[in-house]
């Protein structure tokens, strides 16, 4: 048998050249900030350096990543460099997927998974070192971890080291947050990058990127091209158009070309292709989301095409509405994108916007996620930690969220029984916090367990968490005509019931991949939902009091109108309730922020024979695209709504926020930064995570 090829020798990266300096700083300080260019080796080398220097003798090294794709990719790389199988000494853990063993001493994990681990082990004693990587991304979970680390280093003064790494972060600000901890600046080896600006914003940035790419291919010397797009849809379009144009290029380039997509929902085996060198005499075009800005370093790029946009999910606490917008990037992001062209030799960056836009319209830095997200899950998490002296409004955040969004979170948690009228976490809230789901779904599961329909609720939660896109209800038949597919229709009760029916039908088929393709459903997504369901079953069986019935089966026989499940959903989504308007089919949301909304066109819910929709529905999310829509809705009974309305009447926000009505000095008074955006209707799953 041929022997396996030896692992590549670890590269000498800027970080490695500063090994002694880094180790000396870590030896002498509980917290160290490391700032270094993207690609300088922060993610792959720091953990190995500390491992070599004995830091794993007393515990493992945790390296957090804001994105799942980076946790998987970087751990794979480190395992390869150390010549060990992934999952042994080096492993990763992301939500619903744990590839570690008791031998794992370097563990890459998403920041959300580390937060969850701290619930069962608040001192995180299993770790001797915690590296918060990619802190410049300012993900919600990393920001919360920064606050928690501040507490933890005083509790574990002698045996915990915290490193915070970043490509762009304002080191002094973080250092100040950690009482003046040292900041190590690792000089990079960035070559100059020449920047070219467009004279005006293109009307179609895909077309414009395409033209620029073809121009580079025809006229420029060898060197790979990195093209930034906003999401999977744009990338798919761009890849196929680019391949087509390259083939039809009249004055062909003297080089071959290879076009590769790169985004978070790409299967891992396709992701790794971007790390392999190009075949001889071939130019690679990598069409990527902002995952290639700093999270994943693609080598050998010489040309960058930057459309100047990014897809961003933003939450407005005053309307409870999400919008998924294509927004302008910040100057820091634009500089990061340009920098990707100068890692191996001098490069060129084509900015598809005028210099004046860069200078005057772009924000200096991206708004941290904590200031543009719903905080219900994070506040519940913080409450469940039982930290002494904690008043959520006064938690020590690097950049505090607005008072309005904290109060919004408290209200939501109160309406679904996670906290009581005094803002104290309830028993139900504690169980909810242990489930790796958003609060509404956790609450639904707990209620479903009480009502005897846990099995169905688990299927719904799993399929929602796997973010399966019901791509279309139509598919091509042999004659090329489009014919209606036989996807279940929710029996007139809405999308959650449809999702349940889909899962149950798939279960009945014996999890047959052909069933998925016959119904135009992605096999990978459906398999993930099955895994997620299994894991949720294990977790709920561990934490639920009393017996649980978790087996999937056709549920309609016993409860033809799905009353139990719909009731559980009504309790779980008690903060996301809407009432039909009397004279037409629009709805208004019920609660402290009434809002006119419509049923999303993708919904299976239809009006009755007179075109009337149900009086009350609960919704999974409100999303503002061309207009405000409720997505994933379920019809509920008026009788189930009454207790929620009563709770709403009693709700006193001062009381649930612990009576403190004085805003903190550092708290921003106005939290919504209006980032100029393009209006498009996009799926949540299109944002890379
Ligand atoms: P930083 O965290 O400072 O941005 P990294 O440690 O991620 O830098 O990257 C250092 C080097 O390792 C880069 O040259 C990058 O291309 C390479 N690298 C990182 N991940 C992978 C991977 N999965 N496969 C191959 N090379 C990788």
From TrEMBL:
Q: Which residues does the UniProt record annotate as the domain Helicase ATP-binding? A: 23-187
Composition bias, Basic and acidic residues: 662-673
Provide the taxonomic classification.
Eukaryota, Viridiplantae, Streptophyta, Embryophyta, Tracheophyta
Name of the protein in its database record = RNA helicase
Q: Name one Pfam family in it.
A: Helicase_C
Tell me if Manganese is a UniProt keyword of this record: no
Enumerate the PANTHER family for this protein: ATP-DEPENDENT RNA HELICASE (PTHR18934), PRE-MRNA-SPLICING FACTOR ATP-DEPENDENT RNA HELICASE DEAH4-RELATED (PTHR18934:SF234)
Q: What class of enzyme is it?
A: hydrolase
């Amino acid at each position: 048998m041929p022997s396996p090829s030896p692992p590549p020798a670890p590269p000498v990266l800027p970080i490695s050249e500063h090994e002694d300096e880094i180790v000396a700083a870590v030896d002498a300080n509980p917290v160290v900030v490391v700032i270094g260019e993207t690609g300088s080796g922060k993610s792959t080398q720091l953990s190995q350096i500390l491992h070599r220097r004995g830091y794993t003798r007393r515990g493992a090294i945790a390296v957090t990543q804001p994105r799942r794709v980076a946790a998987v990719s970087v751990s794979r790389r480190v395992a390869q460099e150390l010549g060990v199988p992934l999952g042994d000494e080096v492993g990763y853990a992301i939500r619903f997927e744990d590839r570690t063993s008791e031998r794992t001493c370097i563990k890459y994990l998403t920041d959300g998974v580390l937060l969850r681990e701290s619930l069962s082990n608040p001192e995180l004693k299993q770790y001797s070192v915690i590296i918060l990587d990619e802190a410049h991304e300012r993900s919600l979970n990393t920001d919360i971890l920064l606050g928690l680390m501040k507490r933890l280093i005083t509790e574990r003064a002698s045996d915990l080291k915290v490193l915070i790494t970043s490509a762009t972060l304002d080191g002094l600000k973080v250092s100040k947050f950690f009482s003046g901890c040292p900041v190590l600046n690792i000089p990079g080896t960035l070559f100059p990058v020449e920047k070219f600006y467009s004279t005006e914003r293109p009307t179609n940035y895909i077309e414009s990127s395409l033209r620029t790419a073809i121009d580079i291919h025809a006229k420029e010397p060898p060197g790979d091209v990195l093209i930034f797009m906003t999401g999977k849809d744009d990338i798919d379009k761009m890849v196929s158009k680019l391949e087509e144009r390259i083939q039809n290029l009249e004055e062909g380039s003297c080089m071959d070309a290879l076009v590769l997509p790169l985004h978070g929902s790409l299967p891992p085996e396709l992701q790794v292709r971007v790390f392999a060198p190009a075949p001889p005499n071939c130019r690679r075009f990598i069409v990527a989301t902002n995952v290639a800005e700093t999270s994943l370093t693609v080598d050998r790029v010489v040309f960058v095409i930057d459309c100047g946009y990014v897809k961003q999910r933003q939450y407005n606490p005053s309307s409870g509405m999400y919008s998924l917008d294509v927004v302008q990037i910040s100057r820091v992001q634009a500089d990061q994108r340009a920098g990707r062209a100068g890692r191996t030799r001098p490069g060129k960056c084509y900015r598809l916007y005028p210099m004046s836009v860069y200078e005057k319209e772009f924000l200096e830095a991206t708004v941290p996620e904590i200031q543009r997200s719903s905080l219900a899950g994070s506040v519940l998490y913080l409450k469940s930690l039982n930290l002494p002296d904690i008043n959520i409004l006064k938690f020590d955040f690097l950049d505090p969220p607005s008072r309005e969004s904290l109060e919004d979170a408290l209200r939501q948690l109160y309406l679904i029984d996670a906290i009581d009228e005094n803002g104290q976490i309830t028993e139900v809230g504690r169980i909810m916090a242990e489930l790796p789901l958003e609060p509404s779904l956790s609450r639904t599961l707990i209620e479903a367990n009480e009502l005897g329909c846990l099995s169905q609720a688990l299927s719904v939660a799993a399929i929602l968490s796997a973010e399966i896109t019901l791509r279309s209800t139509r598919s091509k038949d042999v004659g090329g005509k489009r014919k209606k597919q036989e996807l279940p229709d929710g029996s007139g009760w809405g999308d959650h019931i449809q999702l349940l029916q889909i899962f149950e039908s798939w279960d009945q088929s014996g999890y047959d991949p052909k069933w998925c393709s016959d119904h135009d459903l992605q096999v990978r997504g459906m398999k993930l939902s099955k895994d997620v369901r299994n894991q949720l079953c294990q977790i709920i069986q561990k934490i639920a009091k009393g017996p649980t019935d978790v087996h999937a089966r056709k549920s309609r026989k016993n409860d033809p109108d799905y009353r139990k499940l719909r009731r559980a959903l009504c309790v779980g989504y008690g903060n996301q309730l809407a009432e039909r308007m009397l004279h037409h089919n629009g709805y208004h949301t019920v609660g402290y922020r009434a809002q006119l909304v419509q049923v999303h066109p993708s919904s299976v819910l239809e009006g009755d024979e007179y075109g009337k929709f149900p009086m009350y529905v609960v919704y999974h999310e409100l999303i503002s695209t061309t207009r405000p829509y409720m997505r994933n809705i379920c019809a509920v009974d008026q009788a189930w709504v009454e207790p929620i309305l009563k709770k709403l009447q009693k709700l006193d926000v001062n009381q649930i926020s612990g009576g403190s009505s004085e805003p903190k000095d550092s708290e921003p008074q106005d939290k919504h930064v209006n980032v100029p955006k393009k209006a498009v209707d996009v799926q949540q799953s299109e944002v890379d995570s």
